[in-house]
Design a protein that fits this description.
- It is a single chain.
- It is built from two helices and no strands.
- The chain is an all-alpha fold.
- Helix 1 runs antiparallel to helix 2.
- The longest helix has 45 residues.
Length: 80
Amino acid sequence: MQNPKKQTTDESRDSSIKAYAIASQVGLGIVLPLAGGGVLGWYLDSHVFQNTVPIATLIGLLLGLIAGVYGFIRLISLLS
């Protein structure tokens, strides 16, 4: 027979780990697409569209933000 107190502690630890995993997934799911879009836009501005306003960087940041928010909404809908 298992100790009920130990089972409660294990369940509490598991839920804490799940909460940290979800929080890190949300944070990385927004930051990484945003950074990726910004870097890709910066690369296009500096190597393809030379001597122009940083329009590709702004578009990349906007698309990265949209992708991050979309991923966040998908994650939340899967959890509920």
